[in-house]
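Data availability (excerpt). The following record was deposited with the supplementary files.
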Amino acid sequence: MNGAVRLRIEGRVQGVGYRAWLEDEARAQGLRGWVRNRRDGSVEALLIGPSAALMAVIGACRQGPRLAAVTNVAATPDQDDGSTGFRTAPTA
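Predicted structure:
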């Protein structure tokens, strides 16, 4: 079963390689979508793909890359935006 989830990741998640790390994690799981920094200091992502892969990446996001200090990961159901592949999007 495929789905789409929007994540909002908070903590020390900018300037620590979080976006590149999440892009690698998502691609390794075969997910589509995007990741971007938010002006409020959080990271936002749209993950699209099989439920098991979504759950694996959401779980990994709670830890993040080595230099990150994640304090919260909020996941909400979303819509498939038609993304092909996984990319880093501009800051919003």
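Summary of structural features: Residues 18-28 form the longest helix (11 residues).
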